[in-house]
Amino acid sequence: MLCVLGLSVTVGSPARADSTAGGDLQVAQTLGDRDLTFILRRVTGLPGPLHVDVLTHRGTAAGTLRLGTVPTGASADRTEGSSAGTTTSSVPVELGGTPGSYSAALDIDRAGPWELVVDDGSRTARIPFMVPGQVTSPPELAVFGGFVTAGVLMLVTLFVAVRARRGGWVLLPAGGVVAALAVAVTAALLSTSLPLPPEPGGQVDATNDNVSDPYSAVRPVTNDYSRPPASLELGSYTARVAERGTLRLSVTDGSTGLPADDLVVHDGALMHLLVIGPTGELWHLHPVRTAPGSYEVQLRLPAAGHYAVSAEFARRGGGVQQVRSATGLTVADGPARGGGAPAPRPELAPRGPGTRTIDGVSVRLSAPSPTAGEATTLIARVGDTPTLQPWLGMVGHMIVVGPLDRADATSPTRMGRAAQDAPVWAHGHSMGGDMSGHSAPGDHTAPDTGGATAHDMAGMRHGTHAAGGEAEASSMSGLMPLNGDSPADETVAAYGPDASFVYTFSRPGYYRVWIQAERDSAILTIPYLLRVSPAGGAK
């Protein structure tokens, strides 16, 4: 019985995907005028289907996308290596005019690195993903091998005890039983403390071979998976006001100058692009990958003037990197139109904490007396019901730019230039996501004070600010994946209405703050103006 048990576990098909290797992959893409989220469901058996859900938002135009799967990477198997780069499966997806989920299924026939190719008829996005193989770890092999060996030697011991004339011969197989059991028990006890193999596509470059067997890769001798800084270069942007234009971006390795094609999905996207215009309007976009190190995004900018640009991404084996464009981009005015340039939208006017209405939704920001050098809790109540949807893996996002001169912070035409030169850019996340205990509408005495991770783009630093360990742990429990499960996606609307952020303003002055959250399949961007007092000074 022990032999059968061991063989049934150890002699498994290497072509079966490991369903516990990770959850579903969520990737946001700004494809033309469409803001889409692609959810790649994990493959649970090979050959088998890859189920892809395309989530649309309010205002997404109807149309047809064509999805395709392409195996990539190198392999010692000549057959698999020769088919790399060839589309193996393709299927159309019809997007409707109403927000929702649109599904498709493609064929996957092997473990390894793949690309999901998305074509909307005028441009193509390439989303990398992994299909891991199932393999038994060395400790597991030792455990099962030890028990199987002990079972076999136990039978030998019984046979020798019955047939041998000298009782001393029994000690030899009996000692083997003890040794085999010792190996199995020791391997079982140590298996939980042994480090996992390097993650293909995350910590080491992925090939067909090391994805099928991650233990074939040599583990780095250090846990420092740092990468050199990357450079962000903007291509020429020739579109004028209100014209659609394509902004092309190149990401290059700072030490070699070669294209950096090791970006991995971070917070639901390969790249988060922040664009701040002269009127104070913020765009949080997700450029599509078109080639190694090359990305592009479609823009239709409404006002002439300067636009500040920053990108956030994570490199394989490294941490999150924040890169601000040194130049930004400048948009020239278009042909003369009757009435002149359109007036800035009233929602873009900078206002302090309090209640305001954005796209018909009442939003109240509470930010009591922010002071430089002290942690400040900002609470945004979006609507009055717990119907916020996770966007990019978070309930809420907060963009902070400053400190600014008051005239620049309140100007309807100079915000882009002021943001270009601002010392601090920060991107904070609300970690509140506990669906088990929502605060009642109107109750601001016990808000969810989960931690927020703030990335300081100016100084290339990362800081985590939490109101308390217990509060952070409880608020994260409803949103973060556990035991290999997938995090909640945008089809879930059961969070909020409070989205809280904890951030420490490093300097006094005026800051422009944008809160972002998703509600009713629409991304709301709520701008505010905060005055941060000097440390120890007058409030």
Mean pLDDT: 82
Low-confidence stretches: 4-21, 434-478
Number of strands: 29
Quaternary organization: single chain
Number of helices: 8
Instruction: State the share of residues found in helices, binned by percent.
Output: 10-25%
Strand fraction equals 35-45%
Choose one word for the global shape.
elongated
Secondary-structure class: alpha+beta
Main sheet summary: 7 strands, antiparallel
Radius of gyration: 28 Å
End-to-end C-alpha gap: 76 Å
In a nutshell, what does this entry contain?
By secondary structure, the chain is α+β, with helices and mostly antiparallel strands.
Describe this structure in words.
- The protein has 539 residues and is an alpha+beta fold.
- It is built from eight helices and 29 strands.
- The strands form six sheets. Strands 22, 23, 24, 25, 26, 28 and 29 form a seven-stranded antiparallel beta sheet that branches. Strands 11, 12, 13, 16, 17 and 18 form a six-stranded antiparallel beta sheet that branches. A four-stranded antiparallel beta sheet has the order 1-2-3-6, with no helix packed on it.
- A hairpin with a 4-residue loop joins β7 and β8.
- α1 packs antiparallel against α3 and α3 runs antiparallel to α4.
- The longest helix is centred in the first third of the chain and has 26 residues.
- It is elongated.
- About 12% of the residues have low confidence.
